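Checked the freezer inventory, then went back to the computational side. Two predictions to log before the end of the day. The first one is the construct we discussed on Monday; recording sequence and tokens without edits.
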Amino acid sequence: MEEKGQKKNNKILILVTGILCIIFLISMFLTYKNEWSQAMQEPWAVYTYQDRMGERLYYKLNDDEIVSQDIKMASKQITGISLYMKYKNLDGLASIKVKLIDKNTKRILKMWNFSMENSMDGFVNFYFEKGCKVKQDKLYTIKIEASGIGNQVIELQRAGITKTSMTDGMEINEEKHNYAFAYRTLNGDCTSLKYIFCVFVLTIITTFIGVVICIMKNKKLQIIFIVAAMGLGVAYMFMISPFVVPDEASHFATCYAESSVLMGKEVCDENTGEVIADIDAADYLIREEIPTKNTYVRYIKGVCGKTENVIAKKTLLRTPLSMKNIGYIPQVIGISVARVFHMNSEQLLYMGRLFALIWYCFIMYWAIKLIPEWKMILWIIGLCPMTLQQVVSYNYDSVLLGITFFLVAYILFLKFDKDKITKRDIIIIGISVFGIASIKFVYLPLVGIALLIPKEKFDGMKKKCLISALICVIGVGGILITNLATMTHIVTTGADSGTTAIGNELTYFSMASFIHQPKEVIKVFYRTFEFSTSGYIESMLAAPLGWIDLGMPSLVILGLVVLLMLCWQKKNVNVKFNWKEKIWLIFIGIMIIFLVMLSLMIDCTYVGSRTILGIQGRYFLPILSVLLIATQTNKLTLQTNQIEKYEPIILIAIQAYAIWYVTMTVVCR
């Protein structure tokens, strides 16, 4: 009977998965026929120089005026250039002459005469008849001359200048200005999008099939997690391009510096303190923090080895982050491997991300294997869109999230499944605590769960107290080694010292504010909960991704919440906490929430702000499982034993929907 029941369940599982795969393929096919196909016909912008955020400023062209700008080429060939122009209500008499000149030889590569008749607000493309060979990292000049303008308005969009810009600003009648005009260099079209489209389809279908096979063969949940995490992780690596994750550029520069230390190479410039990079890190110079179809084309071409590095010599990136911790170890190893094998810039970026994903799969394998009862809760949290975004990036969250999930799982394993606490257990907890302390010490209260382990497993209360003290010393040591400078800044900076941020107008909160302004502090804390709780829940699970520019359908959030609720109210829990232990777990969660808010109140929030600034929902991921476990009750239970087999498939379906939505959004840009 059991065998027949198993076969029946497997048939239902295959049927459900097949239907979900067909729906996904139909959606992707329709998107390919419409959005993707249209995007493939558009020119590929090798490099785009434009301010994408903030107010857009323009420069008005005038008759008999010459506007020029020196630019560096980011490739060895171009098929055209683009200028962002805005004009309307023209009488057909206005025209501009655009020249591209080799600054070294003074040779005019191409001259275009452009008559302006219709209204326009966007990039105007100027093409070569054939591809034009250029020298990467060398200077070329775009020269613009307007005529017949009169009272008409023709404007170039302006863009700011940064240290890594591929231009040093525009000239008007040979007079230098401290801003530039927006432009693009083109090289062919975007037909390579079809390859990244195939990556998304293959990874999702392969993940569906792999997970179904594992379930049918009754594989352990930790094995199923690795299959799902690797498949979805690879899809996320390409869906969320390098530098799109918040602050990834800073983390990459820090990882590259640590790789140089490991390989015995030059690390930082003696004068500026900026990271010295070989040509294999040049994508940093042309990074796009808001992804477009051009971003996808660059990285899929680069991974396939079909692009050149954008510079021909060493360059400077930025100063590395001052905080050195173990959170970068996987990425540093990945970068170092790529440098040893002389990979190009795009391959190097993805190698670091891949090693971060492999580390995360390794640590989560053990976390899910060891946690006694709440495996599916950890499984789903570990594969949420926001979690995957962080663990496939250069952010130290790939290590931090893995360690915090593992620490909670290991302590629960010791409480419920282990008979005696050994030296190995103490070493494992000590290493985990040191890792958390060196990355973000606000999560250290998680180790307080260990106080729930019965004293008998330590051979008495005295030994338990000694071990607890030792773990505390390890945590404090980790904080002092890696965060002493930051802590000093927190204590001495802010309202107490009168430090201001912008023109001596904004005064920031400090620890002293709790003494001198207690009512203001309480009000800001309360209003933060009042205004932002729902947003924190959404951003903790899935949206928005990237620099808050990749939204997510509400159905994705709803699906994740429903899955977590099913796991939360699972019936027949074999191991339980008593009410006192649950209160302690909730207290730990509240303490961490308070510490997160406190740190950002001091670091980012000015006196007078309505809420605490800088808080992101993902900061609460490490405590989500703890709060769900603590609030679990058998008084309100759902019959989920049969549903549990389908939960991994449902999660993959939710992720497939998310990937479909985000990729469609990006290719339409």
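The second is the one RB wanted added to the comparison set:
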Amino acid sequence: MKQIVRLVVALCVVAVPGFVAAQAWPSAPVRMLIPFAAGSATDVYARLVAKHLSDAFGQQFIVEPKPGANGSIAAQQVAKSKPDGLTLFFTTNTTHAANPSLMKQMTYDPVKDFEPVTKIGGIAFFMAVSAASPYKSVAEIVEAAKGQPGKIAYASGNSVGILSGATLQKMTGTQMTHVPYKST
């Protein structure tokens, strides 16, 4: 994680001369909207980056969690924000890659309404169960799900989890119950 933060700070420092030549930026505190709840992985990363950006630029970078609608609430606010460079969207692939496939109507255009700035990092997803669970492998979970359609539940915190669960069910011919985390 330290390497990611260092990379972001280095990219920002390299970009400073161009910003200084054009104009003093940021001229006011910068809002960093995130599409998930406070305490989420995205929130933690955003707060780390915000601190380093604040230190590098001498201006506040304020993280604002705006959870809901699978990230669409925050995305729409950023898409409709004043184009003054003082609102940033610190997001995941949920709002730009998954939502167009998951939602019938979008309140923003993930391509036209945003300008990519940088990739901060990547997160690996995994499947886990309680240590007290009778299941010790994916094969055992699939076997149980086949024997008890709809009785095995899985949770997710974003659309990648939703799609991963749906893909597993399709590939294995099972039916499981999705339980979304409340901040998505």
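For RB: Helices lie at 2-22, 41-57, 72-79, 93-102, 138-147, 159-172. Strands lie at 30-34, 61-65, 87-89, 153-156, 177-180. Let me know if you want it refolded.
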